[in-house]
């Protein structure tokens, strides 16, 4: 158990819908990262927050957005969902930027 | 640009030794991570190399050569549970950590 929690574990929804994925970092970690991993693909970095501020953006679609709240938990919002958005979404946290990242168990999203 | 290369797949036999290589080209370098990821599960941290040389941690060792942009993960006394993907990730200066696509390791009995 890494200490990073993610909810929900599984999510099934339809195309065009909007979902919110939630992440609570390890106690004391200020950085939160979001990754997407499609079947048999590598980890695709989406976005990073540090102490409430956006610090880095990767290959994140405009339909996706995220934020980190004052209590340091983070939410990833996915809207106008498409079939291709079906994937595992991981959240990771670290004490500071560019330090060892610890991953949550992931949210498995299935868009039908 | 930023680039990390690892073999896509490798196969080894239970009880044997396997070496998984990783080469990288990044603008700046702070260190290199290795993670293990079982299918459908979260990546778990294995090692972090900052300085050149070999670091041993039980059955797993990780080596780094900064001048060559090269690292390897050495797994000894392979067990069936070592069947997983192994991700190499580079920590550049002033930029986000970059993950390679991973090496899928198959262990045969």
Describe this structure in words.
With 112 residues, chain A is mainly β. Helices cover 0% and strands 51% of the residues of chain A. Chain A has strands spanning 5-7, 10-13, 19-24, 31-37, 44-50, 53-57, 64-68, 74-78, 87-94, 102-103, 107-111. Chain A is globular. Chain B has strands at 3-5, 9-13, 18-25, 31-37, 44-49, 53-57, 60-65, 70-75, 84-91, 98-99, 103-108. Chain B contains no helices and eleven strands. The interface between A and B is medium-sized, with 22 and 19 residues.
Short description:
By secondary structure, chain A is an all-beta fold. Chain A is built from no helices and 11 strands.
Summed up, the helix count of chain A is 0
Averaged pLDDT of chain A? 94
- How much of the sequence of chain A is in beta strands? over 45%
Estimate the mean pLDDT confidence of chain B: 93
Distance between the termini of chain A: 31 Å
Number of strands of chain A: 11
Low-confidence stretches of chain A: none
Question: What structural class should be given to the helix and strand makeup of chain A?
Answer: mainly beta
Kindly state the percentage of residues in helix of chain B.
under 10%
**Total number of helices of chain B:** 0
> Any idea what the shape of chain A is?
globular
Q: What quaternary form is this?
A: heterodimer
């Amino acid at each position: 158990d890494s200490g990073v929690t993610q909810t929900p574990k599984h999510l099934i929804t339809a195309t065009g819908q909007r979902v919110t994925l939630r992440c609570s970092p390890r106690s004391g970690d200020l950085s939160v990262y979001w990754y997407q991993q499609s079947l048999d693909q590598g980890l695709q970095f989406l976005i990073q927050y540090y102490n409430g501020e956006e610090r880095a953006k990767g290959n994140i679609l405009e339909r996706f957005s995220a934020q980190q709240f004052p209590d340091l938990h983070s939410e990833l919002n996915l809207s106008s969902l498409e079939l291709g958005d079906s994937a595992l979404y991981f959240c990771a946290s670290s004490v500071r930027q560019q330090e060892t990242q610890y991953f949550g168990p992931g949210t498995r999203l299935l868009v039908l | 640009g930023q680039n990390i290369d690892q073999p896509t797949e490798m196969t080894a036999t239970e009880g044997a030794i396997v070496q998984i290589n990783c080469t990288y080209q990044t603008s700046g370098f702070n260190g290199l991570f290795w993670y293990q990821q079982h299918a459908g599960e979260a990546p778990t941290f294995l090692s972090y190399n900052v300085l050149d040389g070999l670091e041993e941690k039980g059955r797993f060792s990780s080596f780094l050569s900064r001048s060559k942009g090269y690292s390897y993960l050495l797994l000894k006394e392979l067990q069936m549970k070592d069947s997983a993907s192994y991700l190499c990730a580079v920590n550049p200066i002033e930029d986000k950590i970059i993950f390679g696509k991973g090496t899928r390791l198959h262990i045969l009995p």
